[in-house]
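Feature request, filed as a ticket because there's no other form

It would be nice if the structure record came with a short human-readable summary line next to the tokens. Right now we just get the raw output. Example of a typical job, pasted below so the devs can see what we mean:
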Amino acid sequence: MSGFKEWVRLKKNNKVVGYMRITESNNMFYSTDNYAWTGSKINYDDSDKFSGLHDYNNQPIFINDMVLLIKSPDNKFSDGQYVIKNVMKNMIEFASINSNKEVNTLNINVNHLNKKNIRFIEINS
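Raw output as currently delivered:
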């Protein structure tokens, strides 16, 4: 995301309609496919901020994405499905989802995450 201070996924009526990147000089660029960028605005009513993470397929992970985290020996979290809820300086807040529909919050330092241990599942709406 070099040269951009913010990257967001745009939604309208709970469906993804595109992406927006904001440059350091506050210029806004829009894309319907996250590939070709233009200055033409996209109409949206909600957005999800880029988390700073990519999954093992190099897919960008945004707030509200459901991901599968796969434990490695140096990680302190359990394998499982998580929804990304918030990004704070060097920490990402995950909400774990278990079979009892209980939600537990887990904060993980971004330095303890490696994209080979993250699998995108779906956008949690």
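Something like this underneath would help us a lot:
Residues 52-123 form a domain with the SH3 type barrels. fold (CATH 2.30.30).
The first strand starts at residue 4 and ends at 12.
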